[in-house]
Amino acid sequence: MAKETTELTWEGKKSQIKLSIYEVKRKIQKALFGKIRFKKSLKANTKKNIFVWSMLALPLLNLLVFWLYVNIDSILLAFKNIDYAAGGVEYWTLDNFKTIYQMFTEHTEGYDLLLYGANTMKYWLLGTVWSIPHSILLTYVFHKKIRGTKFFRVVLYLPSIIAAVVLAGIFEAFISGKGVLGKILIDVFNVERVPAWFQEVEYATPMLLFYSFFFGFAGSYILFSGAMARISREVQEAAALDGATMWQELWHITIPMMWPTISMTIVTSFAGIFGATGAILLFTPNLPPTFTFGYWIFDQVRRYNAYYLPSALGFVFTLIAYPIVLLVRKLVTSIYADVD
């Protein structure tokens, strides 16, 4: 028994000695280097950095290639042209901007920028001045779950599920002379000839605008419905108890509380003011009187591989749109304070 006690005591002393040595080492390490465990912390930080950069690698590559490189290259192309007589040698020049000025003043077929600007403004006004308020009102009606809103929600959103080419084919067949609209015009209204809506200049742009108006609600609806869904039910119930009508609730509660989303939509709309366009590629790809700025730039690159004039035009639009966007952003953000 005494022997066992002696052995236990000795083992306890050994453990105390080891513990005291460990404490001495720890105090020395703390005095020299602090509490940082270099190997473990470095390993943890390395793993964290690898994970973060692996997640950011693809978005950064996309930003560098498809935004930074493309935009810098397009700015440089705006100040260049090519001399085919000298074997396709590029040279620096400002002639592109002179040509653009002439295209605005001269009404040349296929290069009538004044006409394309008028068409662009029509699409922009339709998508901003009309579509945004109408989408807010429509979304509010759906949000209140009035009778019949589920049916109309499906009807308005269904075209966005169908592929654009298929939808365009259905729409063109519907309005053609052999389609539903054509038969109604001939049988009911005794129209002698149904126009070729997308081949005749006087009807093509109005029909493109109608197509954009009728099938362009889904994006705004999803955006605004998400903003309305975040509004507290308690706030709406309190407004109802105070006797607020639906119009008063919309104007004094709903719109102010979802104003960050509305203001963002307005600012982005002004940012793309010169790029507003319609389904021209689907219906009138070879009818210049229906072109917009955006489609003319696309058509020049697609058909003629022309990069210099489109780049110069885009550069001019950037210089014009940038201060407009800053001014609009300052104005719309000052109307209502941000609501959490």
Q: What does it look like?
A:
The chain is mainly alpha-helical. It has a domain of 224 residues: MetI-like fold (Orthogonal Bundle), CATH 1.10.3720.10. The protein is 74% helix and 2% strand. The chain has 15 helices and two strands. It has a two-stranded antiparallel ribbon with strand order 1-2. The termini are far apart. The N terminus is likely disordered.
Q: Give the overall pLDDT as a whole number.
A: 85
By CATH's scheme, which homologous superfamily of the domain at 110-333 applies? MetI-like
Per DSSP, the total helix count is: 15
Would you list the SSEs in sequence order as H and E? HHEEHHHHHHHHHHHHH
The appropriate CATH architecture of the domain at 110-333 is: Orthogonal Bundle
Structural Rg: 33 Å
Strand content: under 5%
- Residue runs with pLDDT of under 50 for 5 or more positions: 1-8
Structural class: mainly alpha
CATH topology of the domain at 110-333: MetI-like fold
Main sheet makeup: 2 strands, antiparallel
| Helix content percent band | over 70%
Q: Which CATH top level class of the domain at 110-333 fits? A: Mainly Alpha
Tally of DSSP β-strands: 2
What would you call the shape?
A: extended
What topology does this entry show?
Layout: H1 2-33, H2 38-78, E1 80-83, E2 89-92, H3 95-105, H4 113-143, H5 149-161, H6 164-175, H7 180-187, H8 201-214, H9 218-229, H10 233-241, H11 246-257, H12 259-271, H13 280-283, H14 293-304, H15 308-333
Antiparallel strand pairs: 1-2
Helix pairs in contact: 2-15, 3-15, 4-8, 4-9, 4-12, 12-15, 14-15
